Amino acid sequence: MLTPELLTKESFSDYGDIIEIADSTPITINSGNCQRYSDLATLDICESGVAGISLFDAKPYSNPLTLTYVERHPLGSQAFMPTNTDRYLVLVADDINGRAQTPKVFITDGYQGVNYKRNTWHGVLTPIVKQSLFVVVDYIGDGNNLEEFEFDSPYVINFD
Q1: Model pLDDT for residues 116-159, shown as the tens digit of each residue
Q2: Are the beta carbons of 127 and 60 closer than 8 angstroms?
Q3: Is the pLDDT of residue 23 over 90?
Q4: Which residues are CB-contacts of 60 (< 8 A; sequence separation ≥ 6)?
């Protein structure tokens, strides 16, 4: 059984960026009515494509969750920003010789997005409160930008 830990920049740094305003210095814009937090994640897109913005509308998962596979994207990083403040799970796994290892499970604080590095094994978008809309920035172009890895045995994740 796997249990999520709180998502932090330090615990997630091997897998990508946390997109959040904590520890960021804003620039005041729009006649003082808006704070801009710039450069919160680094996009890594293969030169054969472009960075595109998509919307993903994801159904919630129930507790406990059974994780049977992970995926990765060899042609570009992939950033997810929720459009609400509901917590969701972030699942990643180290790679050894093309095989995903035991997953690590994080839970957001409701105000965080993530940007997975290129070729990082990760779980699918995993809202746990209600159906949720996410803004996704990732590779758009030719070529196969999806690899999946099925675990020999599923992992059970309890996120109570």
Answers
A1: 999 999 999 999 999 999 999 999 999 999 999 999 999 999 99
A2: yes
A3: no
A4: 127, 128, 129, 130, 131, 132
Quick one: which H or E segment has residue 49?
A: strand 49-58
Its pTM stands at 0.92
Q: pLDDT for 96-108, tens place per residue?
A: 999 999 999 999 9
Residue 46 in 3-state DSSP? coil
Rounded to a whole number of angstroms, the distance between the first and last alpha carbons of the chain is 12
- Quick check: 35 and 115 in contact, CB under 8 A? no
Of 117, 9, 105, the residue nearest 61 (C-alpha): 105
**Cβ–Cβ under 8 Å, residues 6 and 107:** yes
Residue 94, both tokens: 């180290």
Rounded distance between C-alpha atoms, residue 36 and residue 29, angstroms: 7
Q: Please return the burial class of 131, using the count of CB atoms within 10 Å of its CB with bins 0-12, 13-18 and 19+.
A: exposed
CATH code linked to domain 5-157: 2.60.120.480
